[in-house]
Structure prediction request, 225 residues.
Amino acid sequence: ETGVTQSPTHLIKTRGQQVTLRCSSQSGHNTVSWYQQALGQGPQFIFQYYREEENGRGNFPPRFSGLQFPNYSSELNVNALELDDSALYLCASSLDGYQPQHFGDGTRLSIL
Amino acid sequence: KQEVTQIPAALSVPEGENLVLNCSFTDSAIYNLQWFRQDPGKGLTSLLLIQSSQREQTSGRLNASLDKSSGRSTLYIAASQPGDSATYLCAVNLASGYSTLTFGKGTMLLVSP
Prediction:
């Protein structure tokens, strides 16, 4: 059974650029959640996708957007990057929202 | 708004000690609570999940308890080892609306040989 995989592992961007992060969910999982973890903080919920529809959203601006594909993999897109967007971005998948969430190793995004 | 607090923020102990990590949450209407381990620069590894109807869960040297009415959970680690050094995060899943995990800031644990 393949776990949650995220790509790329690390990414460096400059302010104002756009970025796309990718997540492959664990086999059989139809729900994907994205979290942002700043240094020294706990992860903060960005949004969740269930069967290709956005199912809920945290307190993040519209420049954070996402997609879920028919195979339940997902993308997180961030436009107009700001210095404060520097963080570890974590993806988690689950059988549904209330089942245990399984996390990937994250993408470390650095904004210069 | 659900808030999760973890005490202490950091803990340093010698190998072999038993220790307790604390987690408190403000909204007792939770569906479940999870404890995670995070190694530096890595993702989260789920350690234990306690449903709201349960009082405790055990896995090996780990025991997690839940007192929903008082908004508290503890993670007990027996006979600590240097390999237990990591950050431990507590997260609650609310019972209403769509599910999402609300995390504390974590407890950074260092176990010295």
Q: What stands out?
A: The first strand of chain A starts at residue 5 and ends at 7. The two ends of chain A are 37 Å apart (CA to CA). DSSP finds no helices and eleven strands in chain A.
